[in-house]
């Protein structure tokens, strides 16, 4: 729920309740005051009857006015309890039934008891209360409308800095270089929020930057010792005769150093792509890149007895050639490595996309494999191949897609 | 053949020196910028193997120095940096080739030999080894005057062996040379074996000696008869 909605809801509820309570109190107070007023009139009339009777010793004539009626009735021995009652007033002119107020009392005229009933119409009182009530309702409605509009306008403008900060946070990405801009505000809370957000963003960015630089430097520094090991190995194998056991050990070391080199180069390359250090954009003929890569893989294709189908159109791209080679080599290597004996491999290239379709041994989770050092079961790679592909695609705005099931895998690069 | 190795990392410098010192070549070394500059100012080399990051200086300045003085010594840059900037600057300044660390010594030697050959033979670019005659421009191989047909990889491997004749070349070095480092052939050296088998068969059938020997299961050696 939006803050404005929530705020309005509470506001409206409270306003309506207060207004209703006020209205009810108002109604009863006014109605009470007015009834008292009528009662006073009624008592006045009663007193007039009493004074008339004590002076003249008979009942006064019954007269009619348009707001008051009086009636006498002979009583037996019992007395009547003096009381005020709400009753109905019969208006003689208009033949209407109106709300009325009556006073029942009694008088003794020459030993005979009479009851007195003085009735007065309450219609004017009711009218007054109605007007008061309508005015109250009107005020509530106007107040609510004004409140809603005002809230809307004020909140919209007051919360503007907040939404600006929020939209910047939503768009925040570690990978791009744009930093979070400061959003000035006259409200202390928002200024504080803004400071917190900008300083957090800057800190995160600089930490991330440091990490990337560290990765790059570390990979770099590792290259020298690795090349020393490599060269020492190359020198060692020149020296003497080796036993089978020794040469097996040397082979293992060679293999491990090669793996280490490859891993380190991949990490370095990843860091470089992420740091935006790879420029050198040139026109790359993807068809040539693919043909080269297929040529490089021909032994493996042949060994597995894979049926290779290619349909290569022409596609020129503006990119770094080395990166395109890595992308294509990784995808084709995977398609062969995860293939089975006498499987198939199709490589299709047109202006929109490159598709590599292969039969394969295992189903795997594409999103998982995209993560660093995540390998599908039985993979012999170092676990950075697809991460690199994804990074390269991201760098040039290509889309790397995967579709597949247990038996067939389709990797597509949409240019 | 006279080589100068400019490299500050002792381990690597010693290995390169040991690998390049032999019957047909002299290898000198320099460990820092000033001694390197002094050596290239005093002597001429067929090829200078140059590390870019040196104590007290940038290796690129040595390339600049050579070119400014009109020297045509071959220059091969070796560097852990493979940022394209360095590569382009180095090659723009007149370096002949660029090799990224880490590398195999056999790869280094094959690159150096290529540079030396390019400089030595002006015009006719032929490489002769006993009865084997290779036309480097046409990429054609003749044995005792008879043309022998090699595939691209076999041809490249033959040149690699001749450049490293008398040395044991490891299988990983061969794999890296043939397939580059972006293709992981995953410890599967069967492919190397079949290529070498083909080369030997073709050479022997054309009447050449069987030069290539397996070396203790680690690699192969092109023997100098």
UniProtKB/TrEMBL annotation, chain A:
Entry EC no(s): 2.7.13.3
Matches recorded under InterPro entries: HATPase_C_sf, HATPase_dom, His_kinase_dom, HisK_dim/P_dom, HisK_dim/P_sf, TCS_sensor_his_kinase
Organism superkingdom: Bacteria
Enzyme class, first EC level, given as a word: transferase
Transmembrane segments: 12-30, 128-150
Domain Histidine kinase: start-end pairs: 217-415
Protein name: histidine kinase
One of the Pfam families matching this protein, by short name: HisKA
The keyword Coiled coil belongs to this UniProt entry's keyword annotation: no
Signal peptide annotation: none
UniProt key word Cytoplasm: no
Gene Ontology MF term list: phosphorelay sensor kinase activity
UniProtKB/TrEMBL annotation, chain B:
GO cellular component: cytosol; protein-DNA complex
Residue ranges constituting the OmpR/PhoB-type domain according to the UniProt record: 124-224
UniProt signal peptide: none
Molecular function (Gene Ontology), one example: transcription cis-regulatory region binding
Domain Response regulatory: 2-116
Keyword check for DNA-binding: yes
SMART domains: REC, Trans_reg_C
Presence of the UniProt keyword Transcription regulation in the record: yes
Ranges annotated as DNA-binding: 124-224
CDD domains: trans_reg_C
Modified residues (4-aspartylphosphate): 51
InterPro entries cross-referenced by the UniProt entry: CheY-like_superfamily, OmpR/PhoB-type_DNA-bd, Sig_transdc_resp-reg_receiver, WalR-like, WH-like_DNA-bd_sf
Protein name: Response regulator transcription factor
Organism this protein belongs to: Mucilaginibacter achroorhodeus
């Amino acid at each position: 729920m939006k803050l404005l909605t929530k705020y309005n809801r509470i506001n409206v509820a409270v306003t309506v309740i207060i207004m209703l309570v006020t209205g009810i109190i108002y109604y009863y107070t006014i109605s009470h005051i007015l009834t008292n007023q009528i009662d006073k009139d009624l008592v006045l009339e009663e007193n007039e009857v009493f004074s008339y009777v004590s002076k003249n010793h008979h009942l006064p004539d019954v007269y009619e006015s348009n707001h008051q009626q009086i009636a006498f009735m002979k009583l037996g021995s019992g007395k009547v309890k003096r009381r005020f009652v709400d009753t109905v007033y019969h208006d003689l002119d208009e033949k209407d039934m109106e709300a009325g107020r009556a006073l029942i009392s009694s008088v003794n005229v020459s030993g005979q008891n009479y009851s007195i009933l003085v009735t007065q119409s309450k219609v004017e009182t009711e009218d007054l209360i109605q007007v008061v009530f309508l005015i109250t309702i009107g005020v509530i409605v106007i107040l609510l409308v004004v409140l809603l509009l005002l809230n809307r306008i004020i909140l919209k403008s007051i919360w503007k800095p907040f939404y600006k900060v929020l939209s910047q946070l939503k768009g925040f990405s570690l990978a791009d270089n744009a930093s979070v801009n400061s959003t000035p505000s006259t409200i202390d809370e928002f200024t504080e929020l803004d400071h917190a957000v900008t300083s957090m963003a800057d800190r995160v960015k600089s930490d991330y930057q440091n990490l990337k630089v560290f990765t790059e430097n570390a990979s770099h520094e590792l290259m020298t010792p690795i090349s020393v090991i490599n060269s020492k190995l190359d020198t060692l194998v020149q020296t003497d005769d080796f036993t089978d056991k020794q040469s097996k050990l040397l082979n293992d070391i060679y293999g491990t150093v090669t793996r280490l080199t490859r891993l380190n180069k991949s990490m370095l390359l990843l860091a470089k792509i992420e740091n935006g250090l790879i420029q050198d954009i040139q026109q790359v003929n993807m068809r040539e890149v693919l043909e080269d890569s297929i040529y490089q893989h021909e032994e493996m294709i042949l060994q597995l007895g894979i049926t290779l189908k290619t349909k290569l159109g022409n596609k020129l791209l503006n990119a770094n050639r080395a990166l395109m080679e890595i992308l294509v080599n990784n995808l084709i290597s995977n398609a062969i490595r995860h293939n089975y004996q006498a499987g198939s491999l199709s490589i299709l290239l047109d202006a929109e996309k490159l598709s590599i379709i292969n039969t394969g041994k295992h189903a795997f989770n594409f999103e998982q494999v995209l993560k660093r050092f995540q390998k599908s079961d039985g993979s012999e790679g170092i676990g950075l191949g697809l991460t690199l592909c994804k990074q390269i695609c991201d760098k040039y705005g290509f889309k790397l897609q995967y579709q597949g099931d247990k038996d067939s895998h389709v990797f597509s690069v949409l240019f | 053949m006279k080589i100068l190795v400019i490299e500050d990392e002792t381990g690597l410098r010693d290995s390169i020196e040991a690998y390049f010192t032999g019957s047909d070549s002299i290898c000198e070394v320099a460990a820092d910028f000033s001694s390197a500059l002094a050596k290239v100012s005093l002597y001429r080399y067929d090829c200078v193997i140059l590390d870019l990051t040196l104590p007290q200086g940038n290796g690129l300045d040595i390339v600049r120095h050579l070119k400014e003085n009109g020297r045509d010594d071959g220059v091969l840059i070796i560097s852990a940096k493979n940022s394209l900037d360095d590569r382009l600057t180095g090659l723009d300044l007149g370096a002949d080739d660029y090799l990224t660390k880490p590398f195999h010594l056999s790869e280094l030697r094959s690159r150096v030999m290529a540079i030396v050959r390019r400089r030595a033979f002006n015009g006719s670019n032929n490489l002769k080894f006993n009865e084997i005659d290779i036309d480097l421009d046409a990429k054609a191989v003749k044995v005792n005057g008879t043309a022998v047909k090699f595939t691209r990889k076999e041809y490249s491997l033959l040149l690699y062996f001749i450049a490293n004749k008398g040395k044991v070349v490891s299988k990983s070095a061969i794999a890296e040379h043939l397939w580059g480092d972006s293709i992981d052939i995953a410890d599967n050296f069967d492919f190397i074996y079949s290529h070498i088998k083909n080369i030997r068969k073709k050479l022997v059938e054309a009447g050449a000696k069987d030069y290539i020997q397996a070396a203790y299961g680690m690699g192969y050696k092109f023997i100098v008869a």
